[in-house]
Amino acid sequence: MLMHHQTVRQILPTPPAIAQAPRLHVAIISDGNGRWASSRGLPRSAGHRAGAETARQVIAAAPRLGIHTLTLFALSSANWKRPAAEVNAILRLLHEYVLTETTHCIEEGVRLSIIGRRDRLPVTLRQAISDSEAATACGTRLHLRLAVDYSAREAIYHAACRFYKVTELSPESFSNVLAEVHRGGSVEVDLLIRTGGEQRISDFLLWECAFAEFVFLQKRWPDFNATDLEAAVQEFAKRERTRGALPDALAG
Ligand code: IPE
Ligand code: MG
Question: Is the CB of 116 under 6 A from ligand 1?
């Protein structure tokens, strides 16, 4: 019987890696735009524009790779330390994205959420964001979360402040409050990808990445493409996720 079983397994084609790990939340720290541009003698804003194009391609490729939630780090709260012209260029690209892509998102079943603070964003951008979020709310193929003026530490701090008189608090209810604080939900990250060569988390999704698998790539974000995303997802599929328990081979 065992022999028979083994034979059947040998005959069957190996299922694609994705079949073992569908329904992923992939988070990406899309780093390296500025260096990509500088190395070509271009202004940093050109790197951000190229990065936005990469984002479009990656978003389009995500659903077929089993990704149900894709969180992209578009603008960190720490990025306000950059020259206003650069931050404004990034915000303009975001505004352009929201205005031009909403219809496409609806057609493709993509629900768009912006996570992060909104009070420091231009009013017109804020309005465009809420219009797009409302218009795409029914999308179920992909939940696209763009982190804008986002600081994970600040989100956790504000969520904790809401509870400062509460003595007992379950991690689940805390997670729900965290989701409310910066909107867009609080979804456990399966795979965190960072492009651009640095190996750090930069205040991104600290709570949600507790058990995430990390893939760090030298490639700068504008050079990243759907094939790289697929390779990262395949790399993820090879990892054994124990969440602190024993690997399957050792568990009784
Ligand atoms: C990441 O690229 C994009 C944002 C922070 C918005 P960078 O702008 O950090 O590019 P490098 O790291 O300077 O190359
Ligand atoms: Mg950087």
Answer: no
pLDDT of 147 = 97
Is residue 147 within 8 A of residue 113, CB to CB? The reply is no
Tell me the domains of the chain and their CATH numbers: 21-151+188-236 (3.40.1180.10)
**Is 0.70 surpassed by the pTM of this model?**
yes
- Give the integer Cα–Cα distance in Å for 207 and 189: 9
Whether the Cβ atoms of residue 179 and residue 207 lie closer than 8 Å to each other = no
Higher-pLDDT residue of 22 and 6 is: 22
Pocket test for ligand 1, best of 29, 30, 31 (most atoms within 8 A of CB): 31
The distance of Cα 218 from the centroid of its chain, to the nearest Å, equals: 18
What is the pLDDT, as a whole number, of residue 190?
96
Residue 168 confidence (pLDDT) above 70:
no
Virtual torsion, Cα 241, 233, 216, 50, nearest 10 deg: -150
Q: Using alpha carbons only, how large is the chain's radius of gyration in Å? A: 20
In whole angstroms, what is the distance from residue 2 CA to residue 152 CA? Answer: 50
| pLDDT for residue 22 | 62
Which of the listed residues 28, 35, 58 should we mutate to test ligand 1's pocket, taking the one with most ligand atoms within 8 A of CB?
35
Phi-psi group of 116: left, alpha or beta (phi > 0 → left; psi -120 to 50 → alpha; rest → beta): left
Q: Who contacts 156 (Cβ-Cβ below 8 Å, separation ≥6)? A: 178, 206, 207
| Orientation of helix 84-108 relative to helix 123-135, angle to 10° | 20
Q: What is the pLDDT of residues 76-104, one digit of tens each?
A: 999 999 999 999 999 999 999 999 999 99
Q: How far apart are CA 196 and CA 181, in angstroms?
A: 29
